[in-house]
Design brief:
Length: 257
């Protein structure tokens, strides 16, 4: 997933979180994120400089990083029950929590910090946090969402996915267009080719999916849900709803699910 999905033009749709049900995936009710996280991010957006951040780093640690790492740590076991091939890594550096510092080397925006909190549960087969299959959680005042899929895959992987769609169109429809998936995520998002890919029948009934450059979907989250006691269970329900889609992508590119 991109480190700043909002800048990539993602469209988050307003849909209610799926209602958690009693199952082997059920997790303990706990509160991880509070309004203080969103207040800090809002203040950071208004004071995006290193001196301000250094003066308020204790608030970042207590209201942002520590609860995020605790969420990641506690989500490890529920995620493993969905798939053993995705990791919830609670390390401070190099784990599932994206760093708050921005990479300003190549862009015109030189503000040093991101104005959102990003958590990525990536596939164990890769160390690539961006162009790899994964589940993503984005926390930002007025713009929270959950996402999943494979963003800007390599040419090899994109053609592998398209090849599997051609070979198994029924499986793709069950994965990406089934009611359980679309009720939460709607239609797929991201960029598409202007013309059919080389070697693909332009009249194929799934041509719009075959033209995709990104295989991703997202759903908007309410801040009140995120700061509630049952958010982990509700987020887990979105992960479960997307599991058949993720399984299809993983099988297409030859990694386990």
């Amino acid at each position: 997933m991109p480190e700043d999905p909002k800048k990539e033009g993602w469209v988050r749709r307003n849909r209610p979180l799926p209602h958690p049900t009693r199952s082997r995936y059920r997790v303990a009710m706990a509160r991880y994120f509070t309004p203080a996280l969103f207040a800090f991010v809002k203040d950071l957006k208004e004071n995006n400089d290193r001196d301000w951040f250094k003066a308020h780093q204790d608030l970042f640690e207590s209201h942002v990083r520590e609860p995020a790492l605790r969420f990641i740590e506690d989500f490890s076991e529920p995620l493993r029950r969905v798939s053993e091939h995705f990791t919830a890594d609670a390390r401070k550096v190099g784990g599932s929590l994206f760093r708050i510092q921005r990479d300003t080397r190549f862009g015109t925006d030189k503000t040093p910090y991101k104005t959102h909190v990003g958590i990525h549960f990536r596939h164990v087969a890769t160390r690539d946090d961006v162009h790899a299959p994964g589940f993503y959680l984005h926390l930002e005042p007025g713009g929270c969402f959950a996402a999943l899929g494979l963003w800007q895959p390599s040419t090899e992987h994109a053609y592998a996915i398209r090849g599997k769609i051609v070979e198994d169109p029924a499986g793709w429809k069950r994965a990406a267009h089934a009611k359980r998936f679309t009720e939460i995520y709607g239609t797929l998002e991201g960029d598409s080719l202007k013309r059919p890919p080389r070697g693909i029948d332009p009249d194929h009934p799934l041509i719009e999916d075959l033209k995709r450059k990104d295989f991703i979907a997202s759903t908007r989250l309410r801040q009140s849900d995120i700061t509630g006691d049952g958010f982990m269970e509700a987020y887990l329900a979105t992960v479960k709803a997307g599991a058949p889609f993720m399984r299809y992508l993983c099988e297409a590119i030859g990694v386990g699910f």
